[in-house]
Amino acid sequence: MDQERNMDIEKESSTTLDYSKRAQWLRAAVLGANDGLVSTASLMMGVGAVKHDVKVMILSGFAGMVAGACSMAIGEFVSVYSQYDIEVAQMERESGEVEKEKLPSPLQAAAASALAFSAGAIVPLLAAAFVKEYRVRIVAVVAAVTVALVVFGWLGATLGKAPAVRSSARVLFGGWLAMAVTFGLTKLIGLHGL
To answer: Where are the transmembrane segments (predicted)?
Structure first.
């Protein structure tokens, strides 16, 4: 009887997901996509506050996407490589051998981070790209970003088995705040000609 119970427990534990491990890569993917979405949209809103030209808004958003993706990739590469060095040193101290398959890949982490950032950044760029009229373009960017923020918040919560409504609301209000502050401060500076 005890043997059957132990087998059931082992079977259950092998099929149960480890949400703490899943949270590590999930956090990086959601953070990267959300960062790309919010920073690019905020940059475009800030530029849009003082320049109504669609080309200027798209160009600034594209430059923000490229710069952000590069920054995220380099930051992730350096961070994971540091972790890699620490783990190699620890393995050498403990057993004298380095088990490569257990080590994180700095290049994979950098590529994933850049890709996630770019995936988020493309949302406001596409929303603004085909709209000539200024006010409609601003509304289109805010609407597209709103939908994406809710989806990212919901996706992160669902995959991590956390409360979806609270997570989506937190992500949504944070994104709105970033866009509003950037738009407002840039408009204020533009009006007073600093």
So the answer is: 54-74, 109-131, 138-157, 169-190
